[in-house]
Amino acid sequence: MFHTGGKRILDELVRCLSLEPDMVSRSRDCLAETGNTSSVAVIDVLKRTFDSARCGDASLLAAFGPGFTSEMSIGVWH
Asked: For labeling, which of 9, 49, 62, 67 is most exposed (least CB within 10 Å)?
């Protein structure tokens, strides 16, 4: 679950973290439907994940801010 900082940020996360492109699909959907709404986008992506996550799924929640600011949390769905 990534903050929707923009297409380039999502593309670079996929590339740099060797992610499967579908791992950022909820973030891309949020970006396409609402644009970059700053940090509140994380809540939208989290809600989208709540709708489809299964028990035992692991998730990384990450947000990015101005300059080089980042916050991350790792969790498992129960």
From this structure: 67
Domains of the chain: 7-76 (3.40.47.10)
In the structure encoding, which two tokens stand for residue 19, read together?
A: 């992610």
**How many other CB atoms are there within 10 angstroms of residue 65's CB atom?**
12
* Cα–Cα distances in angstroms (integers) from residue 39 to residues 46, 56, 69, in the given order: 12, 26, 11
Amino acid of residue 10: L
**pLDDT digits over 14-52, tens only?**
999 899 999 899 899 989 998 887 777 888 888 888 888
Sign of the C-alpha dihedral computed for residues 28, 30, 34 and 40 taken in this order: negative
